[in-house]
């Protein structure tokens, strides 16, 4: 019996090379000046209020510190989950430009409300009296206005960040240029966050909240103006309806035709683009073969014009290929959750550690504990630029081939695990110093150990972030179907949001099961927590290696060359 072969599938994102004239005349590097300016303003504004949210809630609204931390946790998580909603709206209905513009305007309204909460005494409770244990809680109206302002500002920030990443990448044609753009996108985000977390936070703490929020408002206004000024240069993507509908149709059609025998003849399957079906074929094997039934032509599936008559019973091979691409990426994407979870845990614990250490810089200046996280941002920004301008080009010259995106992500995994090991050793040193000075039973005691000891682990985290964050964004952008490009760049933000909640749950679980994380960390065993993260990170890295081994990336450069040949 002759062996049957599966039909060759083509991902939809390498289809028709021809573009409308209006699109070919727009885009290019000139648009990146507008997008970079917009991104800088959005991040300055957003992180200007977000970085100091806990302090604002405690000092201005008399919220208890634990409750303020919980509110901040929810806000951080939501801001990293909202980009997915923005991406769905961009891909399905409005396009990246309109979503970014609307989000920036929503953030603008949120900043106005935040300024009002800081300015008007009627919108916040009276301050606590010094030495008094009683503080008046905010009224329901004051809470309502506060939460409305935070929600609005969060929605604007979450909806604009990664939508701008998609819009920027769409302005460029060469895959190499797009990878470089993602590196500099990450650099711009970090650099803006550094300025917000230092300069604007200093203004809020030392001068006034109204002035600090007004600066955020001005940055948001300038960002919106710059973004709209570049409108005539942008190459805007056109939404094509919900891409998830097409993916769901494949599943439904395959299930409905589960009893249909698969054919080995390509003509028995429905092709959306016959010309591109001969270019860069993708074969389907294993359990993915089941999905081929969705594209099998049966009686009544096609009308007299050759178009699909029953869309929930017949799909194109290109749509089947799209679903397979998404399914194959899920394991690699899921490995990113526990790649970022340890970083989320360490970022919060490092602040707690810094509070118990000597933070003096000279005799008159004391480093704010919350500013210790700026070390990660500075490190990642510096190394992103270093890798893009020197390390990656040098590597390609020496080896004759560039580092692949999966290799960059894998290196990031290893470096993050290394940072956890460094953290465990530094914490062991801190605990030994505590024991030697008999400070275990003294909550709030300052350990005679400089805060600089925390810097190496934070710098190493920044190096790991510089490898895996741009690598993940570029990987998802290149590999996802063209109809899901906005969602692709938001996938990293989704990972961060999930990792943030996972980190909270993991710490709470360890607190319940062990005595390592008491209220007084000087009597705890944070080093054991870090060693658990090292072990889990190593296991997660092995899981990533298996996923990366099984996954084969599309050769973007060859696809571009193939499309160019079709134009001739």
From TrEMBL:
Cellular localization per UniProt: Membrane
GO cellular component term, pick one: membrane
Record keyword Hydrolase present: no
Membrane topology designation: Multi-pass membrane protein
Superkingdom to which the source organism belongs: Eukaryota
InterPro entries: MFS_trans_sf, POT_fam
Main localization category: membrane
GO molecular function, one term: transmembrane transporter activity
Keywords tagged on the record: Membrane, Transmembrane, Transmembrane helix
Ranges annotated as spanning the membrane: 29-58, 70-90, 96-116, 181-203, 209-230, 326-345, 365-387, 408-426, 446-467, 487-510, 530-551
Keyword flag Cytoplasm: no
Family affiliation: Belongs to the major facilitator superfamily. Proton-dependent oligopeptide transporter (POT/PTR) (TC 2.A.17) family.
Name used for this protein in its record: Protein NRT1/ PTR FAMILY 2.7-like
Organism: Gossypium lobatum
């Amino acid at each position: 019996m002759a062996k049957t072969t599966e039909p060759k599938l083509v991902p939809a994102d390498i289809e028709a090379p021809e573009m409308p004239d209006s699109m070919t005349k727009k885009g290019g590097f000139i648009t990146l000046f507008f997008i970079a300016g917009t991104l800088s303003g959005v991040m300055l504004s957003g992180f200007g209020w977000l970085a100091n949210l806990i302090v604002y809630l405690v000092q201005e609204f008399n919220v208890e510190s634990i409750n303020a931390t919980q509110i901040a946790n929810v806000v951080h998580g939501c801001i990293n989950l909202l980009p997915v909603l923005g991406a769905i709206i961009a891909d399905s209905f409005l396009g990246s430009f309109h979503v970014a513009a609307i989000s920036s305007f929503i953030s603008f309204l949120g900043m106005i409300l935040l300024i009002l909460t800081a300015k008007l005494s009627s919108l916040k409770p009276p301050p606590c009296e010094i030495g008094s244990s009683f503080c008046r809680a905010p009224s329901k109206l004051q809470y309502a206005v506060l939460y409305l302002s935070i929600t609005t500002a969060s929605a604007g920030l979450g909806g604009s960040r990664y939508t701008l990443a998609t819009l920027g990448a769409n302005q460029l044609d060469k895959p190499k240029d797009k990878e470089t753009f993602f590196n500099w996108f990450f650099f711009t985000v970090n650099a803006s966050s550094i300025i917000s977390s230092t300069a604007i936070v200093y203004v809020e703490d030392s001068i006034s909240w109204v002035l600090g929020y007004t600066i955020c408002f001005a940055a948001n206004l300038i960002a919106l103006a710059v973004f709209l000024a570049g409108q005539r240069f942008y190459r805007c993507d056109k939404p094509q309806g919900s891409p998830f509908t097409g993916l769901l149709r494949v599943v439904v059609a395959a299930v409905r035709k589960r009893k249909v025998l698969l054919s080995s003849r390509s003509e028995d399957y429905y092709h959306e683009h016959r010309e591109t079906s001969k270019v860069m074929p993708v074969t389907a094997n294993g359990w993915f073969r089941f999905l081929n039934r969705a594209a099998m032509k049966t009686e009544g599936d096609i009308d007299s014009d050759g178009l699909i008559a029953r869309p929930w019973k017949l799909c194109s091979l290109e749509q089947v290929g799209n679903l397979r691409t998404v399914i194959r990426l899920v394991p690699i994407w899921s490995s990113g959750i526990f790649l970022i979870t340890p970083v989320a845990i360490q970022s919060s614990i490092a602040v707690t550690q810094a509070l118990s250490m000597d933070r003096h810089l000279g005799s008159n200046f004391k480093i704010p504990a919350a500013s210790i996280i700026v070390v990660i941002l500075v490190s990642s920004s510096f190394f992103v630029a270093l890798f893009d301008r020197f390390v990656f080009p040098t590597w390609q010259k020496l080896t004759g081939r560039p580092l692949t995106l999966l290799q960059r992500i894998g290196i990031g995994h290893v470096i993050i695990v290394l940072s956890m090991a460094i953290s465990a050793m530094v914490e062991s040193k801190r605990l030994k110093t505590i024991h030697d000075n008999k400070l275990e039973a003294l909550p709030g005691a300052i350990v005679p150990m400089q805060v600089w000891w925390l810097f190496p682990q934070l710098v190493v985290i920044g190096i790991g972030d510089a490898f895996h964050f741009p690598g993940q964004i570029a990987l998802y952008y290149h590999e996802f179907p063209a109809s899901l490009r906005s969602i692709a760049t938001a996938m990293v933000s989704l990972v961060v949001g999930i990792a943030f909640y996972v980190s909270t749950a993991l710490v709470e679980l360890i607190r319940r099961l062990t005595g390592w994380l008491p209220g007084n960390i000087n009597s705890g065993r944070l080093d054991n927590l870090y060693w658990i993260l090292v072990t889990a990170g190593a296991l997660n890295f092995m899981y990533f290696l298996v996923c990366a081994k099984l996954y084969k990336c599309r050769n973007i450069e060859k696809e571009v060359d193939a499309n160019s040949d079709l134009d001739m």
